[in-house]
Design a protein that fits this description.
By secondary structure, the chain is mainly beta. 19% of the residues are buried. It binds thymidine-5'-diphosphate (TYD).
Length: 134
């Protein structure tokens, strides 16, 4: 089974430009409780490097691009987020890293819950241990 699940997003729009819609429990498979975005990521700086115990997220570059690397403890896959209609699900217990941010990249993330540091697994070795005993 692929680690990469794309959301079914339609690009609406006309000669004026593009418009993409995200709706709770419709094309977003959860109730969105938090939205955050990463901007001005410095050249060569990767981010992420964690998994979540319960949190589910959707990620999309609304501008620019970055390389999303995902890992379930057994398989690794990567995907370029390089279009505003190319949103992916970051499921719980998926180690994820974002690399190669383009200049002016805006990475938008929708999350199924509020920020909770206790939900983070920030050590890759701990992530593998938890996977092993799951
Ligand atoms: P961090 O998890 O290190 O970012 P990333 O994994 O994308 O590299 O988050 C950076 C800081 O922001 C860290 O101190 C936690 C804080 N933070 C919040 O307070 N609320 C949030 O919703 C998020 C995502 C992070």
């Amino acid at each position: 089974m692929s680690l990469i699940t794309f959301l079914d997003l339609k690009t609406l729009g006309d000669e004026r430009g593009h418009l993409v819609v995200l709706e709770n429990n419709k094309n977003i498979p959860f109730d969105v409780k938090r939205v955050y975005y990463l901007t001005d990521t410095q050249p060569g700086v990767p981010r992420g490097f964690h998994a979540h115990k319960e949190l589910v997220q959707v990620a999309v570059c609304v501008s620019g691009r970055c390389l999303m690397k995902m890992d379930d403890g057994i398989n690794q896959e990567e995907v370029w987020l390089d279009a505003p209609n190319k949103a992916i699900i970051i499921d719980k217990m998926i180690w994820h890293e974002m690399h190669d941010f383009s200049q002016h990249c805006v990475l938008l993330v929708l999350a199924s819950d509020f920020y909770d540091e206790a939900d983070y697994i920030r050590e890759y070795s701990s992530f593998l241990e938890i996977i092993k005993h799951a």
